[in-house]
Amino acid sequence: MNKIDSAGHSIHFETQLAPLTDIIKSGKYSKIFVFADGNTSQLCLPLFQELLGDFQAFDLIETDPGEENKNIDFCIGIWKTLLDFEADRKCLMINLGGGVITDMGGFVASTYKRGIDFINIPTTLLAQVDASVGGKTGIDIDNVKNMVGAFTLPQAVFIESGFLKTLPKRELLSGFAEMIKHGLIVDQDYYKMLKKSDYKKISSDAIYRSVEIKNKVVTEDPHEKGIRKILNYGHTIGHAVETYSLIHDKNPLTHGEAIAIGMVCEAYLSSNNNNLSHDELIDISNYILTTYPKYTIKEDSFTDLLAFMKSDKKNENGQIMFSLLSSIGTCSINCSVTENEIKESLSYYNIINKNIAND
Amino acid sequence: MNKIDSAGHSIHFETQLAPLTDIIKSGKYSKIFVFADGNTSQLCLPLFQELLGDFQAFDLIETDPGEENKNIDFCIGIWKTLLDFEADRKCLMINLGGGVITDMGGFVASTYKRGIDFINIPTTLLAQVDASVGGKTGIDIDNVKNMVGAFTLPQAVFIESGFLKTLPKRELLSGFAEMIKHGLIVDQDYYKMLKKSDYKKISSDAIYRSVEIKNKVVTEDPHEKGIRKILNYGHTIGHAVETYSLIHDKNPLTHGEAIAIGMVCEAYLSSNNNNLSHDELIDISNYILTTYPKYTIKEDSFTDLLAFMKSDKKNENGQIMFSLLSSIGTCSINCSVTENEIKESLSYYNIINKNIAND
Ligand SMILES: NC(=O)c1ccc[n+]([C@@H]2O[C@H](COP(=O)([O-])OP(=O)(O)OC[C@H]3O[C@@H](n4cnc5c(N)ncnc54)[C@H](O)[C@@H]3O)[C@@H](O)[C@H]2O)c1
Ligand SMILES: NC(=O)c1ccc[n+]([C@@H]2O[C@H](COP(=O)([O-])OP(=O)(O)OC[C@H]3O[C@@H](n4cnc5c(N)ncnc54)[C@H](O)[C@@H]3O)[C@@H](O)[C@H]2O)c1
Ligand SMILES: [Zn+2]
Ligand SMILES: [Zn+2]
């Protein structure tokens, strides 16, 4: 149980990077680059070097941390750096960081000289359980998320829980939302197991199970034509709430915090428009609201939120589409919902949130 | 003989765009964009519209003509324009122009929202016989050619000789060099046929044959690991001469003119280092030098030329690699040659060029 086979490559778990050492020592590559951000070069590079042992022959390419730097200007900078280093088509890029680094590094690698090999070592929980699988790379343009990118596969992925030790709790909680989602959309038992666990002490088994679930879904539908859309559960409303918060809140929601809110709202829609039972709705709401910090979706933001949902790149022909639960552990795609129902679901979140606060 | 099947798509010949009308009318696409440059929007769009008949529902995205605009700034402009037009993942981009338009349009389409469909309608001879096949897209960074790009396939390609009517003679001659190359590397009979023809009146059959040859080669080796390298014949030296001329000459060589020079030099290397016979060397030299305008490779440019060759992205580990003829119609890859021999081949071009001028 230390490897999952994904399209054309392996995802290695808790191997202390041993297979990576082999890849590097094979001599297949003319040069090795490690791509990291200011945080991961400080906090993750030492462990990376320790695990690789005597091999130290790489050049470090460092970028500023944060989503705001996942943009085309930084890409141009990295392409030029590779040029300056005289990187040829046989070099290897190792992306060491969270989803920003693996998304942007993957895009840069897959387009430099029409594609060089890259390997991802995700160092956040979110990047390990979500960004690590599915071949999506991307960058933002004018703050529109992932507006440019490619479907492209790494040579390998290495998931090492050791890197998570320095990750702030809030970042752990952010990635944990995707794990809850994995349980809700395809595996009731996994959801139950997560409910009993502590997000601050995630087990390797749970990470493995999340990767396994996501890998199964994306392997069936690599280009997001159908079943893969179940992974959007919580994200239609969640993304809108996240975008709004980024613009308006002093201390904006993380991705996972916003998705947690989205999952409560979309559970409401699931019970209204799909077969999710009332008890299941209450179960999901209670669990999420007691796990995640309180937030209020302001009444006067509803119009903006709907506008964000309409401009989501997943829509076609202007229709807002949802993936909704039919029970805990099963999910339907392409559900359409009226704007009024969406607003109701936002109000539902606020009301139940307040009630739980009053407990 | 009006269709060639390439990896996952068809190249249509002289169909008056009838299959394109069907594709558009199928209703598969939410929006249609035509991407053109200032010249092709003037000179090719009218014929395009005439052929498509009553269908006119597309938005035009226009860019400035010329290689200097095949860059990341223009890409960003096009991505943003697509965003402004609210282009979703189900839209179609039709690239109507020379290799600059099909290369850049293909790159933009294959990365916008991680990939939308595109169709190429090459309108220069070079783009029809060369850029039309093989799935390469790309743009220049800091004037380094095709430094960023992807291997990605169009939905279809349409080759219509009608578009060539407005193409300047010098551009015809530029594309013709690639056709001569196709004959030299794999088909002696085709080379002989071309020798008897007039580049100003290229037959559809010849274009078809060139596309067929290139398609066969790239289908065998889509990612340029081996046999595809024979297409580089004439290009190792040719590219260097082209780059030098772009920087130093008032009226720089076209790509094809430079490749023609490269083919003479590399024919010399082929007779020195491979099995090309002396008679064949003379035959190639005579034919090319009487077809293409005179040029002198300045003695004091040799060092720069070698430096350009060394920085070519096709090299590995700093070795300059050649594809050399073993006879007219057969070509070997991965031939290494000393710097002195390369200089000799440049001098050979100058000498034989002068002799022919004296005839
Ligand atoms: N490709 C996909 O399928 C996919 C899926 C989900 C998310 N994403 C993308 O991932 C990004 C979000 O990922 P993220 O949350 O990992 O963002 P991130 O990369 O910005 O990481 C979050 C923060 O944690 C820091 N960090 C990373 N590893 C650390 C460690 N081990 N210790 C201490 N600090 C560390 C980073 O420097 C950053 O400040 C978004 O851009 C999103 O679009 C992609
Ligand atoms: N993808 C590939 O496999 C491949 C192969 C070869 C070349 N290329 C690329 O192609 C580019 C060169 O192609 P090109 O020579 O077609 O360049 P181009 O697109 O710049 O066209 C040359 C000129 O002809 C004009 N033009 C185009 N069609 C016309 C028409 N029908 N009538 C009048 N004028 C017309 C253009 O506006 C331009 O000014 C280079 O960037 C090169 O890297 C790509
Ligand atoms: Zn998410
Ligand atoms: Zn060429």
TrEMBL record, chains A, B:
Pfam families, from UniProt?
DHQ_synthase, DHQS_C
The UniProt record lists the 3-dehydroquinate synthase N-terminal domain at 63-172
* EC number, as in UniProt: 4.2.3.4
Keywords for this protein: Cobalt, Lyase, Metal-binding, NAD, Nucleotide-binding, Zinc
Question: Which intervals hold domain 3-dehydroquinate synthase C-terminal?
Answer: 175-315
- Give a Gene Ontology cellular component term annotated to this protein: cytoplasm
User: Per the UniProt entry, what are the Gene Ontology biological process annotations, in alphabetical order?
Assistant: aromatic amino acid family biosynthetic process; chorismate biosynthetic process
Q: Does the keyword Cell wall biogenesis/degradation apply?
A: no
Task: Tell me if Oxidoreductase is a UniProt keyword of this record.
Answer: no
This protein's cofactor list reads: Zn(2+); Co(2+); NAD(+)
Q: Name one GO molecular function term.
A: nucleotide binding
Q: What does this protein do?
A: Catalyzes the conversion of 3-deoxy-D-arabino-heptulosonate 7-phosphate (DAHP) to dehydroquinate (DHQ).
> What protein does this entry describe?
3-dehydroquinate synthase
Organism in which the protein naturally occurs: Pedobacter metabolipauper
Q: What is the lineage of its organism?
A: Bacteria, Pseudomonadati, Bacteroidota, Sphingobacteriia, Sphingobacteriales
